[in-house]
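--- STAGE predict ---
source: upstream dedup step, 1 unique chain passed
mode: sequence only
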Amino acid sequence: MQKRAIIQEYNKICAKCTRKCKQRKEVHLISCPRYNPKPVQLEIKLIFPKTPRKKASS
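--- STAGE serialize ---
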């Protein structure tokens, strides 16, 4: 007996969820009442004003 390879292609909503109740790619979901989004690390870009460099005094 051959083992089938499990392809883990999930629905777009389920791919972004932390729960284990994932649906296949072929299932069309509009919304999920048990949806729990994965936490996302946000990156904040800090922009500082450019100041002229001071000349070194010798």
